[in-house]
Description:
This protein is an alpha+beta fold. It is built from seven helices and twelve strands.
Amino acid sequence: MSSDLIAAIGDPMVRELASRGAVRSFPKNTVIINEGDRGDSLFVILSGKVKVYVSDDDGREMILDHYSAGDYVGEMALDGQPRSASVMTLEPTSCAVVTRDALRAAIVANPDVAMALIGTLIERARIATDNVKNLALMDVYGRVARLLLSIAKEQPDGKLVVPERMTQQDIADRVGASRDMISRIFKDLTIGGYVTVIDRIITINRKPPARW
Length: 212
């Protein structure tokens, strides 16, 4: 079964990494990486879905991103420094756990693996920079509108639908705001006819204005 999941990975470099790891399965809501811990492994996701997040001493969280099959997480800890974020499974998840030594062996065997890792790090650094800019320069409404438009998928009828069922708390955690603030924004967007929410499925009927 695990060999089939590895073979299904589209990116050959990620597939190469996964083939060098030990496959482990985790139940839903399992923290597989703890912020601040030291670690020497990255996790290639074979099935399931995870969230990457940071939190404070009061338990408040901000979600940095979601990843699913074919992605990997934990690569920044390969320098031996403490983990910079936590990772939790959002559903039952299987991963290939690749140690630092196994990663080095993969790079020696195929230097393109290193280039693929660098490319991923650059992409994620750009996303992080963009998120910091938005937190600093956009108000909460702007961050919500940007999030919805960035994750929505166009349907055959031309409407944009957010594919994952998101609660208002989920959105608050993604944009760094309170749930009450998100509730007020969604009330205004719904009254204005910009979005429709049915059973936590968000449909964007028309593009929200850049500023409210």
